[in-house]
Design a protein that fits this description.
This protein is mostly beta strands. It is built from 1 helix and 21 strands. It has one domain: Distorted Sandwich (Beta-galactosidase, Chain A, domain 5), CATH 2.70.98. Helices cover 2% and strands 43% of the residues. It binds 6-O-phosphono-beta-D-tagatofuranose.
Length: 286
Amino acid sequence: MQSAVRQLTANNGQPAIELTFDSASALVYLQGAHVASWKSDGITEMLWLSETANFAPGKSIRGGIPICWPWFGGYWGEEPDRAQHGFARVADFELVDFEATDIFTRARLRMVSDAPYPEWSNRLALEVEIVLSDGLGIELITTNTSDETVEVGAALHTYFQVSDVTRVQIPELMGLSYKDKVRDFDTFVQEGEFSVSEETDRIFLDPPAKVHLIDPQSGQNLKIESLGNTDLVVWNPWAENAKKMPDFDDQGYLNMICIEPANALDNRKVLRPEQRFTLGKTILPV
Ligand code: TA6
């Protein structure tokens, strides 16, 4: 049983670590503790990555698993000009601990950048744990390091590779309520099977812990089990929005769907001093 963690220089000279477990591999950029590749069989890429993605300091990678933290979406505070989805995804992380065993390979990274916004200095600490075995696990572990209560939102903004997004199914979404960003965040109920044929940006409320991503064309189906999330965000930008994003290749929208366990909008967690909170997910081919 081959398992290892090694540090390397990846795209555009960016530092990264590679986890291997048997034939499986995962590539994690230290900036943003960003999982950019997961090959469960060592050959098939399970995560979508834009052909025009940036690999540069201070720029988030379009694809893989960007970390939205300490907020998801727009900033709720009064201060202006705060980056969408927070600042962890462009922060520096360092490898603090790893294990390579015959049942899993694990790496733990810690955010070492100072918060770029003064009101967030010395408030929260973030560690990210990534586990590779038959599946891929990732957990965001947030600790309130201040002496006051702190609100934190987050999401694991996972871009899944699919054969044809118009044919994918996520059966467990049927019947759930969701806030639709495309329709002013009004609340609707998912009537019938979920499907994508236009811009889709839905925050499903109180979702089940387990959902499945069914890809009928490839037969590559996944079980996605989340913990700590109050919401599940599902996003596809569709053609017009994909074209507007320079780091999103124009046709890429047909082969990706984001399924994101989140604490979104008003569902932020309120942490007492020293309190710890974990948001995570495990993805397993089925
Ligand atoms: O998770 C869906 C979403 O909030 C969309 O509304 C869209 O903004 C997407 O995230 C991508 O955001 P980004 O800041 O990575 O371009």
